Amino acid sequence: MLDLLRRTVKTIRPAYRTLSRIRGIRLHEPTISIASAVYLGSSYGGWQVDVSGLNSDSIVYSAGVGDDISFDLALIDTIGCRVYAPDPTPNAIEWIKRQNVPSEFQFIPIGLSGSEGILDFHVPARKDLDCFSRTPVAGAKLTGVVQCPVTTIPQLMRQLNHDHIDLLKMDIEGFEYEVLDQMLCAGVRPMQIAVEFHHLQYGHSAQQTIGAVEGLKRAGYGLHWVSDRGNEYGFVLRSQLF
């Protein structure tokens, strides 16, 4: 019921902000301030990033396309960099086919996970929803499962012949916890990370987000942004600030 209510009020920002605070969803506040950080994209699909740390040669991974690439397009328009956008879900694949995207935007029909393989994704009954997930939302109507290929960040980097990532953005419906854990264990340190944590959704607890944030801090990241909604976070490697 809470998941249904959360989705219903998601588009009403003040009401959703109030609900988030009442339910304790906003778990953190920023610990550092970056003057050059700007918000790019729509109110729904946008993120705040430090543009001073990016240029036309930057490598950006934007995982979780759905049906909103306003952030990616704004980043390309502002910085001129190439954006690699993995998303394995059928809705995203079909939606991208209908878009006139710039050459700097490279869609990759594969998902991110903590390991490689083929996974079952639950399919939402509503055609306009893009929340395909491994664990179904409580109370949500589903129409079955679809099998999608997934890979790890280090393996995707090898596939694309990249030795680093300047910005990693993830909105991947609960997979972020295992992806971050595997990535950090593998020694991969993107210069910036923008991630939506799905605590209190898909069976994930608030403690998992707290643990993930602590892990990122131990890995050298500073938290510079938390959205009004309390689920989207922006991190930057502290070593890049000096």
UniProtKB/TrEMBL annotation:
<protein>
    <submittedName>
        <fullName>FkbM family methyltransferase</fullName>
    </submittedName>
</protein>
<dbReference type="GO" id="GO:0008168">
    <property type="term" value="F:methyltransferase activity"/>
</dbReference>
<dbReference type="InterPro" id="IPR029063">
    <property type="entry name" value="SAM-dependent_MTases_sf"/>
</dbReference>
<dbReference type="Pfam" id="PF05050">
    <property type="entry name" value="Methyltransf_21"/>
</dbReference>
<keyword id="KW-0489">Methyltransferase</keyword>
<keyword id="KW-0808">Transferase</keyword>
<dbReference type="InterPro" id="IPR006342">
    <property type="entry name" value="FkbM_mtfrase"/>
</dbReference>
<dbReference type="GO" id="GO:0032259">
    <property type="term" value="P:methylation"/>
</dbReference>
<feature type="domain" description="Methyltransferase FkbM">
    <location>
        <begin position="77"/>
        <end position="205"/>
    </location>
</feature>
<dbReference type="InterPro" id="IPR026913">
    <property type="entry name" value="METTL24"/>
</dbReference>
